[in-house]
């Protein structure tokens, strides 16, 4: 499962364009990964700001850690 | 808003605005739907356009233009600068907030109904033909019928997919981009600057596009082939730290640019795709404003005629695809090949090519001459690149 972090996402749609199974829903300032995601990782790799990650990576805590560090 | 229109345009960018305007002028009743709360915002763009390409589709107004460009500076990986100048108005820096607004205002003036904060969540296609859209607006879901849907919904387009077209883009053809608007920098604002090199932007380039002598859009795109190893954001930070360490950042925006040839299929029964949604960006430069407007203009006209003749079949709408290919699509296929070749060149090859050009006296550095010299001394393709950029 892919996780998106709203704080980092700019809602640009690059991930939507590469998703092979059309399972990303994007609004003006909201993003959701739908259930039929096949975990191909393309969206994670294209994102210009690293706002997506596979479930093995805990973005939320990584983001907090970097905020504390900076 | 009515429950039926001749034509519904999804997306209020330049492609959508121009499709809507031309469909309306052709006699169709038109509804334009935009998911964001305001047209033109956020600006997801470096804002540079070729003057000739813009003039071909609209009469540019002074209020849309923040700066006029007379040439380009191409910087090779080891820092050699190749300057290509022309007359004063080779290109414009647009203020896209004002520009996108103006285009939709013009469309509205031509009779188009416009609704913002209107998210299209699906197309309606009983018996396989597109006949309307499902719309979410202010917490309400509704359906609006039409004869033709024009999907001008940008890089994130899903309209084509809903209608059954294959529109997802290959990773290597997708540019992953970040841009910052920097103030407190010094630049000659008559030029746009391009930096090439595998270490600064693999499979893409860095752009520095001045809005005035102290303010510029500084950004980069890297191919999706490489973005997995280091993100666009990190590449840009490295470039800015080195080149503009004292700059202040007034705006940051990210995005994707589909740098591919036009999609094989851009029409279906009752459906047309326009602009980024159809991959109509110049695949070499990544510029997609002029081309989206050109495509919108053709699509809008063809849609209006098809509607008037009560035949909105794929066969009829193919007229749009045919005219687009003649006007730009074919050229984009060529530019895409050039892009692939250029990005295969090593940094060393790029440096050598710059050298060959710099050995010419400045007064002889016309584009034609540069091109000849490059071909003789170093049969590389960088000069095709120049032609594409200053086109
Ligand atoms: C970082 C960056 C820099 C760029 N720099 C340049 C440049 O310097 N020069 C240039 O010519 N081009 C540039 N481009 C490309 C250019 O921005 C696009 O090609 C151009 O905006 C395409 O116009 P369009 O109308 O097809 O799509 P867009 O302008 O993207 O408009 C699409 C609209 O559709 C809306 N939409 C999407 N889905 C829905 C839905 N489901 N329901 C309702 N509305 C929806 C979106 O909100 C959006 O407003 C750049 C792109 C990026 C990302
Ligand atoms: S590519 Fe990244 S920034 Fe853009 S919408 Fe997807 S998650 Fe957000
Ligand atoms: S992992 Fe693949 S299938 Fe899942 S959302 Fe990302 S691109 Fe789509």
Can you offer a commentary on this structure?
The complex is a heterodimer of chains A (70) and B (391). Chain A has 70 residues and is α+β, with helices and mostly antiparallel strands. Helix content of chain A is 30%, strand content 20%. The longest helix of chain A is centred in the C-terminal third of the chain and has 11 residues, at 59-69. A two-stranded antiparallel ribbon of chain A has the order 1-4. Chain A has helices at 14-18, 42-46, 59-69, and strands at 2-4, 24-27, 30-33, 52-54. Chain A has three helices and four strands; from the N terminus they run E-H-E-E-H-E-H. Chain A has a single domain, classed as Alpha-Beta Plaits. Chain B has three domains: 4-45 and 96-168 and 263-327, 3-Layer(bba) Sandwich (FAD/NAD(P)-binding domain); 71-91 and 170-258, D-Amino Acid Oxidase, Chain A, domain 2 (2-Layer Sandwich); 339-390, no CATH class. With 391 residues, chain B is of the alpha/beta class. In chain B, a hairpin with a 2-residue loop joins strand 10 (132-137) and strand 11. Chain B contains ten helices and 18 strands. In chain B, the strands form three sheets. In chain B, strands 1, 2, 8, 9, 10, 11, 17 and 18 form an eight-stranded mixed β-sheet that branches. A seven-stranded mixed β-sheet of chain B has the order 6-5-13-14-15-12-16, with helices on both faces. A three-stranded antiparallel β-sheet of chain B has the order 3-7-4. The longest helix of chain B is centred in the C-terminal third of the chain and has 29 residues, at 314-342. At the A-B interface, helix 1 and helix 2 of A face strand 12 and strand 16 of B. Flavin-adenine dinucleotide binds next to helix 1, strand 3, strand 9, strand 12 and strand 16 of chain B.
């Amino acid at each position: 499962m892919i996780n998106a972090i709203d704080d980092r996402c700019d809602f640009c749609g690059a991930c939507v364009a590469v998703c092979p199974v059309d399972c990303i829903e994007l609004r003006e300032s909201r993003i959701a990964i739908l259930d039929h995601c096949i975990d191909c990782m393309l969206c994670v790799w294209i994102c210009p700001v690293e706002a997506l990650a596979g479930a093995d990576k805990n973005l939320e805590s990584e983001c907090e850690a970097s905020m504390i560090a900076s | 808003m009515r429950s039926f229109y001749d034509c519904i345009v999804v997306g209020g960018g330049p492609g959508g605005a121009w499709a809507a305007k031309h469909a309306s002028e052709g006699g169709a009743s038109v509804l334009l739907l935009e998911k964001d709360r305001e047209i033109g915002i956020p600006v997801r763009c470096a804002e540079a356009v070729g003057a000739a390409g813009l003039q071909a589709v609209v009469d540019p107004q002074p209020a849309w233009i923040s700066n006029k460009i007379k040439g380009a500076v191409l910087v090779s990986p080891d820092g050699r600068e190749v300057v290509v100048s022309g007359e004063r108005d080779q290109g414009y820096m647009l203020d896209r907030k004002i520009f996108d607004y103006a285009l939709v205002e013009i469309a509205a003036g031509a009779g188009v109904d416009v609704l913002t904060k209107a998210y299209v969540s699906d197309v309606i296609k009983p018996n396989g033909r597109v006949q309307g859209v499902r719309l979410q607006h202010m917490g309400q879901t509704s359906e609006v019928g039409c004869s033709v849907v024009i999907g001008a919904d940008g890089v994130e387009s899903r309209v084509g997919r809903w209608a059954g077209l294959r529109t997802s883009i290959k990773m290597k053809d997708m540019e992953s981009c970040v841009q910052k608007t920097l103030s407190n920098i010094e630049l000659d604002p008559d030029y746009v600057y391009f930096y090439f090199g595998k270490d600064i932007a693999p499979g893409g380039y860095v752009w520095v596009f001045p809005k005035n002598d102290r303010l510029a859009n500084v950004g980069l795109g890297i191919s999706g082939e490489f973005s997995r190893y280091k993100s666009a954001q990190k590449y840009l930070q490295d470039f800015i730290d080195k080149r503009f360490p004292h700059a202040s950042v007034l705006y940051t925006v990210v995005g994707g640019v589909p740098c591919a040839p036009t999609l094989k299929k851009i029409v279906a029964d009752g459906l047309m795709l326009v602009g980024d949604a159809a991959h109509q960006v110049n695949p070499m430069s990544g510029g997609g404003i002029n081309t989206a407007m050109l495509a919108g203009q053709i699509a809008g006209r063809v849609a209006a005629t098809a509607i008037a003749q009560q035949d909105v079949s794929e066969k009829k709408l193919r007229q749009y695809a045919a005219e687009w290919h003649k006007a730009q699509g074919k050229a984009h296929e060529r530019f895409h090949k050039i892009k692939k070749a250029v990005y295969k060149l090593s940094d060393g090859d790029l440096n050598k090519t710059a050298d060959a050009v710099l050995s010419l006296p400045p007064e002889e550095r016309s584009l034609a001459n540069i091109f000849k010299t490059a071909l003789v001394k170093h049969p590389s393709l960088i000069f095709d690149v120049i032609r594409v950029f200053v086109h």
